[in-house]
Amino acid sequence: IEKMGRNKKDIRNLVSNLPYEGLGKTKQPNRYFPGNAIKTTKYTLLLFIPMNLFEQFHRLANIYFVCLAILNFVPVVNAFQPEVALIPICVILSLAALKAAWEDFRRYRSDRKLNNTPCFIYSRFTKSRWKDVRVGDFVKVVCNEIVPADLLLLHSSDPSGVCHIETSNLDGETNLKQRRAMSGICISDPEFKPESFNTVVVCEKPNNNLNHFKCYVEKPDKDKVGTGIESLLLRGCKMRNTHHAVGFVVYAGHETKSMLNNNAPRYKRSKLERKLNTDVIFCVILLLSMCLVGALGHFLWLQALPSGPPYLVPDSNGHLDSPSLSGFYMFFTMIILLQILIPISLYVSIELVKIGQIYFITNDIDLHDDETDRRVQCKTLNITEDLGQIEYVFSDKTGTLTENKMVFRRCSIMGTEYPHKENVKCSTFEHALTNSLYIIYILYVSTCFGGFAAIRLAVLGEPESGEDVIPDRKLLQQISRAGNCSGSQEIDPYLDFFLGLAICNTVAVSMATAQRQRVNANSVSLPHIFTSWQRKPKRSRSILEDLVVEEDHFNPPVKKEDFEDTTGLQMCSLHAPSDTNSDNLSYEAESPDEAALVYAAKAYGFTLLNRTPDSVTLRLPSGEDLVFEVLDTLTFDSNRKRMSVLVRHPITREYVLYTKGADYAIMELLVKTEIPWQKNIAAGTQHHLDCYAKDGLRTLCFTKKVVSYKEYESWSVNRQRALAAIDHREELVMDTAVQLETGLSLLGATGIEDRLQESVPDTIVALREAGIQVWVLTGDKPETAVNIGYACRLLEEEDLVINMSCKNKLVCTSILDCTLEEVRRYSEDPRNVDTTQGISLVIDGCTLTMALSSDLQDRFVDLAKRCRSVLCCRVTPLQKSRVVKMVREKLKVMTLAVGDGANDVSMIQAADIGIGLSGQEGMQAVMASDFAISRFKHLNKLILVHGHWCYTRLANMIIYFFYKNVAYVNLLFWYQFFCGFSGTTMIDYWLMIFFNLFFTSVPPIMFGIMDRDVSAEMLLGVPELYRMGQGEYTFSTFWVSMLDAFYQSLVCFFIPYLAYQDSDIDVFTFGTPLNTISLFTIILHLSIEIKAWTVVHWVIMLGSVALYFIVTLVYSAICVSCNPPSNPYWILQSQMADPMFYLLCIITTVVALMPRYY
């Protein structure tokens, strides 16, 4: 707080607008802050044309063609009619401008709709609009309404001061988040009175961090109350499960956190586009060389003439330009004449092709997930071809390779392991439906506490979600004994363990939202077959005596009308009995781990009934409800790797801290003791954790600490001071958490299963066969990660696995050097030339930190590139991004990163292509990605099939574009040798423009969208084709096409020239066969390149030829003097009546295409 006073430039003071209502704008205290109206449009009506042209001229090609069009207006250098030269560039610029205008108009309509959304502002006392909201206003938001600005929550209709919001519009997460009204600020329950707010709100300046907010409220008595993100309602969130809430506007309009995060789509340049720019430079050099030849030839031709030729008209003074000056002018004339050597429509064609490719990717039925009804999303439109160039894939594990649907499997309590074998078994009842029908029975509550036994049935082989947990019989007996002992509820560690499971989390309990379905859709109700008894026990018995129901008891049929008879016989359905309220609850968890633990506690009778910011209500197996007062929640962070909840026990009144976290983060915080049995508990639990990890389970440790009143009071003062701080608030808050989380007593540990997704092993093997190296970067323990690595075939049984784990940099250096030397020696051994030894590397986070240091980085990269696969364990999000950047920059390779959670965002953004997987952890990864998929297996077809197709199609189309333009423009160049390099043409100007703009523009676009060199089945069956297809666009293929273009242009020009030599035909009669032959050659050249013909191919190819003849015939018929002094009137009609024309078209086209065909 003291630092905040010194750094006033980093904070803002806000007061209520109510006392200043009706005064002028200059007297408003918050007048310097922007309003809530937003404007996301780029242009205005008056400035659209200049701004759009300015943007389009950032593309050098557009500047090039505009300069040439302007140059054509200079009389001494013009090659065409000036107006004609403007047509191509005007068409291209107009199409791009129309596209930009349409997109901006859509943004304008969206802004207008959003700004006029109704809302309730207390200071106006009327229904207002979003654009009327100002900083300092009080805004009321009702259920299912969207929050119009960033609001500091002051009041909620909920008696506990809580409201729930859904942030899916911001981060994609559909789980409800709890927000808490600031306590002690507005004492006006049940109705909120804004007049009572007479405090000053001091908060940080606007920033784009959605997860942090620093603020405190200063009361009139100078008392300061701090708060954070837990009291901030962000613009764009939707109010849920709360009748209404009132907030104070702290940020409005473009200063809100959501708008500051509303960045434009990231622009990425593909590898192919970078190569394209290089080839454009080569074409420019080629163009300048041809123009230089033309200028020099014109100079030499004029020099050879004995006197001035009669067709050169002198100026008004009778003066003719010198040959050198005329040659200089001719250089620019030739640039104008041969300008189409640089394909003006190539960039527009590439954009159209990519749109078509994206359409086919997004509509691929094989990339659609039926379970979630989601299809692949392409969020970055200009790098589709990079999918065909991938060399390294970096993947997260949890939620990416696995389902991220956590199932509670095993636990260890006080050093004793409970394997929950029933959780993986299934019982067969031959009397039900079919002989293969598997029935799971789940028993919730102990009858020894006066409860009842409820049997839930599902057509399942084993539990499919965290809700389906079959209690361990041995553990049930232990809990039964603990519950029967008088007073044991206060001290028994088994009860404490399950209290920790139910309390130590952030799971929200809701009755208003739709209850999740607890059985599969194919579950079958069997009320006419199965029954269970409900009756009060006459004696205290073991839980298993009442809970374990023999199969024979289910055989007698029971009629439906007997459901509630006097004998107590009750029908059993797939849902819990109607007289228990706990089964009507719906849990909203921020992570599947927490939900699995809460459902596990519920399976043993410890049911989480309600959670507020100040209390947690639990139901014990006995049916008794306990309300724990929540004193503070120490939330999870990536540095501490744990979370804690400090509560006051309702029976003992003790201050109890329950903590859960990663084993390595918990074990070092345990209370130091020399008592043998306590040391044995820690050692046994650690052994069980290692076993769980080897089985591929996710592990967590649970602890308890009783905090004295004096310690709590001292700690609470520091905690409140940290929460009220503005500067370094996160560090201070974390320090207070670390201060309390010491001297912990171990309760136990849990093992949660996260199954592999379908076809993950096949996908990894296919990627590896395609020549792609796969790395997995995970935060799990090495034992867990290695187990999953073998399961998904990242690691093979015959692999040589190198394990790198050390604490000292000197040791790390030594291990790295020795390992690298051995690997090099093996690869250089002549006996191993034809062998493919599989080498895999497993490295933990601590060792990776040292390996990424500047002095060891090169050696680590050298080792890693020699490994077939790399598995990095215990890595942080920052380490993930550093690894991706290191490999991309050091090895100069194309990288792809795939992940599903917020911790994968930095890795996804660091790679050349980022793929987000829409799983169980929200949509942050999807929102930051270039492509989004629903299953890891979709990566197989996305890369190996669509990636290959997109790259080969676009690469071949670009090469064809260059070929087409060079082949056509060279006809004009060869003609210059026979016209004195005068810059004249033998083809009409309009037909030259139509040739590239209409006659030959659509076929290459169709080629780039629809061609398939190899079928999808072949690409999936032979992944090696992916690597072979990455050489489509190289330096050699480009220049081979250029040479082919030169050859074809020579044939297309000189065969007709020799045929018409010494004849008296005019220039256009000579040029028309050249134009027609060039069209046939270019179209048939593309026909040779097409690998998969469809009806669309035939229609477009034949349609282009038909369009040429129709337009040329019409133009020749109506254009009498379109291009004076010469004109093309009736030229083509006369040619088509001459058999020589057809003979030339056939012979020349065949000769031109023979090298390409063979």
Please give a structural write-up.
By secondary structure, this protein is of the alpha+beta class. Helix content is 41%, strand content 16%. α19 (760-769) runs parallel beside α27 and α33 (1067-1089) runs parallel beside α36 (1139-1157). It is elongated and about 120 Å long. Belongs to the cation transport ATPase (P-type) (TC 3.A.3) family. Type IV subfamily.
Draw up the topology in text.
Layout: H1 2-6, E1 11-14, H2 48-56, H3 60-71, H4 82-115, E2 118-121, E3 126-129, E4 138-142, E5 150-156, E6 162-166, H5 168-171, E7 176-180, E8 200-204, E9 215-218, E10 224-227, E11 232-233, E12 238-240, E13 244-251, H6 257-260, H7 271-304, H8 323-337, H9 346-362, E14 377-378, E15 392-395, E16 407-413, E17 416-418, E18 427-428, E19 438-439, E20 442-443, E21 455-456, H10 473-484, H11 488-491, H12 493-503, E22 508-510, E23 531-533, H13 543-547, E24 569-571, E25 586-588, H14 592-603, E26 607-612, E27 615-619, E28 625-634, E29 642-648, E30 655-661, H15 663-666, H16 676-694, E31 698-707, H17 709-723, H18 729-740, E32 745-753, H19 760-769, E33 773-777, H20 782-791, E34 800-804, H21 809-828, E35 839-844, H22 845-851, H23 857-865, E36 869-873, H24 877-891, E37 895-899, H25 905-910, E38 913-917, H26 924-927, E39 931-933, H27 938-976, H28 989-999, H29 1002-1010, H30 1016-1021, H31 1024-1028, H32 1035-1059, H33 1067-1089, H34 1095-1118, H35 1131-1136, H36 1139-1157
Parallel strand pairs: 15-33, 15-37, 33-36, 34-35, 35-36, 37-38, 38-39
Antiparallel strand pairs: 1-8, 2-3, 2-4, 4-13, 5-11, 5-13, 6-7, 6-12, 8-9, 9-10, 14-39, 16-17, 16-32, 18-19, 20-21, 22-25, 23-24, 26-27, 27-28, 28-29, 29-30, 30-31, 31-32
Helix pairs in contact: 2-4, 3-4, 7-8, 7-27, 9-27, 9-29, 12-14, 16-20, 17-18, 19-27, 21-23, 23-24, 27-29, 27-32, 27-33, 28-34, 29-34, 32-33, 32-36, 33-36
